[in-house]
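Q: How would the structure tokens look for this protein?
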Amino acid sequence: MSPDIATLMQQHLPGEALALVREAGALAAARRVELYLVGGVVRDLLLGRSSSDLDLVVEGDAIGLAEALAEQAGGKLVVHHRFGTAKVRLGKQTVDLAMARAETYVRPGALPRVRSGSLHDDLARRDFTVNAMALRLLPDGPGDLVDPFDGQQDLEEGLIRILHEGSFVDDATRMLRAVRYEQRFGFRLEASTEELLRRNAVTLGTISGDRLRHEVDLILKEESPEKALRRAGELGLLARVHPALEGWAGFEGLFVKAREAAPGAAPDLYYALMTSRAPLPDCRDLTTRLKTPASVSRAIMDGARLRELTPSLEEPGLAPSAVCRLLRDFSPSSILAGAIAADSALVRELLDLYLTQWRHVRTELDGDALLKMGVPSGRRLGRTLKALQDARLDGKIESRQDEIDLVQRWLSRGR
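A: Here is the predicted structure in token form.
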């Protein structure tokens, strides 16, 4: 292994991560067990990219090593005895330790059956060659690179390659990960990998909805998720996730606008944009299929219902108060998505005005003030407050005194 790896670790691992890795290596040597840094962190180090995700594989007692590491480092320990795994948290840094294991799939789409194994078994169960490398950890630093599938060469050539022909059949979610990594790193799918992906795209239907949503969520956390979504659309994967997403390809510019309008755009906004051309029944089915959380489901469904209101929003001379009555029950994410995706300039303007100005309009008089002025409690009080707010929205009154004068006129007329 090139001695540069020690320098790369020093440059690209956070201080707490580097300290944990060193302590774990020393403890493993004292316990006479083999310890390896594996997976994405090795890939990122070789690419010269910063990484804080620490995955360690132990050929031996992973939980025992984790307990010793937590005690020595003063970290918090979480153990999963069933899977032979543990987490150690020190400050903001987490390290995952797992026993080396092998996997078998009893049928496509099923979760794997796991048993203890060697490091080679552990690397062989992974998704792509670039994620199937390991660094042996020694008391004085990193040792040799373990690279049984030539992942380093694929890194140098910019290729995403699966480990065996049945990989996508075993776990079809790897297809979505493939395009995510391809687009994140500016790589390309290796030719036979792309051929197998296209051939086996139908097997995405064997995956449970929550596992599919997890992969889509990971794409949405990328710096430019629209790149991976565009590629997934080109490869026919989005339609296999759900038909409601099929028409999204070609609208990736919406995501760029979303980040400009709301930096750090939340998943519910992205989902509302992804379904901005889908009919309401498809949207409803998507939320059920992917088991989307409540905020995402609301953004998707509100977005679909909002599109049905478009003719009402395009009526000439619509007052701000009327716009607010139409929009008050919709989530802000769905309205922002509607503003970004709308074909009509008028609709975009009204939705934007609602989000940025009109929904924040409040009267200066509250219920107590109106009661003191003689407005009866109950429904009439509520109607008066609402009428005051409408008058504010429509520019008929502008000050507290204007509100007082208007309420007094209503009272004098018995309104």
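The chain has 23 helices and eleven strands.

Residues 367-412 form one domain.

Upvote if useful.
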